[in-house]
Request: fold
Amino acid sequence: MALALVASLAWAGEGDAPGDGTPRKRNPGEYGPFFEAEAPSDSVHGEALQRGEKPVLSVGNGAFCFVDGSWCRASLLISAGVAAGMRIPASNAGPDVPYAQFSVHGGFVVRPLMYAGRTWHPWGLGVVGSWSRGTGSVTARGTSEDTQVRETTRTDATRIALHNQIWLSKKAHGFHLDLSAGVVRSAVLDSGRSLWGTHAEIGVGIGGWATLFAGGDFLDRDARVMLGMRAHGIGAGPLIALALAGMAIGGAL
Amino acid sequence: MIASALTLLTLGLAPDVQRPRGLEPSAPSDVVAPTEPTRSPDEPADATTEPADASTDASTDATAGDPPTPTDPDPAAVSEPAAESSPAESGETFRVVAGNGDGAPPYYTKADLDAVRRRHGLSPEPAPDPRKVRWRCLIADPLCGFTIEVQALGAFAPRFRQGDVRERSARRWSSGRAQYDVWVNLPVLTEARGRTRYTRMTLGPKAGAIFSDTGDTWGNLGIVGRYWLGRGRFAPAIEFTSALAFKIAHRRTDELAGSQPRYEMQRGPVGITADVGLSIGGYAALVFGGQYDSPLAREDVPERFRTQASGMLFVGLRGNILWGGPAATAVMAHGLTQRFGQAPR
Reply:
């Protein structure tokens, strides 16, 4: 939040239109390599996913977007992904073991200062939730002569988090930093009980299409840290459908 | 009153200073601005005027290729720019009816532009407008910049797993591999022809899932690159990927198609997979690659949770799912491998 406030202050102040005949900038007070549009004389790609200035799959000229974009004032987030990392229980609860998960992720994000009158602003704020199914736990308790080893086959987790975005570019599919902090509810080791813990994540998004993220779930005596990537449902949906079709043909469903 | 007197006294005692002419808001000039030559529209064709002074001579010589030589500034020439009126003040327009004839800029007419195109090895006529891209860049094309793709792979895959470490042996069996990935392609190398920008190389992240026999399922997270070898719709391209591959699930059964096989989560250390392929456009590619799964063999991990080193090689067809071929290949490879493939016991 503090970072967002600093960013908003940095963009304060409106400049005057240049007097040398160059086109007036859309946000005259903004300067920097990320925010400068390409020169009109530059070569351009013949085709693009997005035509013109209207964000792709949006209504109201960016008032609401089904694929998040740099010029969207409100966006729906829906994606699916995979991640891998480590499961780190308390030192006397069991060994560190590899952890992997697949997840679905959704939410809603708005750009408050773009509602407040600014044409463009890098800060976005929203709420996200996710559900994941991960690999199970391994616990080992007792003495070296009498060790009780137990495992669980899977670990489900549900998360709700506050989502902050800092867009680094005005390009339609530009990069943005995503910071999420919230809570997670998941079974702890082999207790069979679901507890509330802390969830935190930092990611780098590419437009609304994909996000590379590093995150962690921190519960009582059971922590999981992971690195992963999720893709928008437009890409992930067909992928999941194909995988399910292959599993069905293979008799696995 | 006293203050005004002091000000006048100060101005009167101030030394004479030559002020820059540009700082004088409306300084009258003693030099009369030259008038532009007038020419009737049907006057024959020498659009250039004879050089009028030494400075024009110097610039012409420099254009012709001679090294520039320092010249003494002519006081009259120095004072002229300030005295010349702006184009808005002259208000005179004229129409160019012929080229300048000496091949130097400015270029006005088609003959001039043809000469410039010949000099730079370009064809006499400008290239036609670039072709249109089908599928709105959902199938990669050199005319596209940023793209998103869903790729599917169906492949034959010889697999192996470490056997008894005392004998340095490995178990080998034939299997299949299906892989579904989302690619994000960011243009990192482009080339321009006219106003059109073509993508030469893309790099970006990718993620997806890999399936093989016995329900073995891996997630993968890595990077993909594509280098275009042409600019056409079906231009060949070299694709290369590398990714972390991590076990997610397994179908625990000793006899496939037997009784009650269970598909459940399974952990495994992070391994690596990589491949290289030759593609036709963004449509399909012949791919060769390999995968290695690291063992989980630490002493503090109970023995029944340890895994062996394993891996596979694979050769197959990969491509964009939108036109159907690669998707069908991958789904069939996936289904048949899971139904009939079997790991050695």
Observations:
- Chain A touches chain B through 59 residues (CB under 8 Å).
- Residues 5-15, 17-23 of chain A have pLDDT under 50 and may be disordered.
- Residues 244 and 250 of chain A are 10 Å apart (CA to CA).
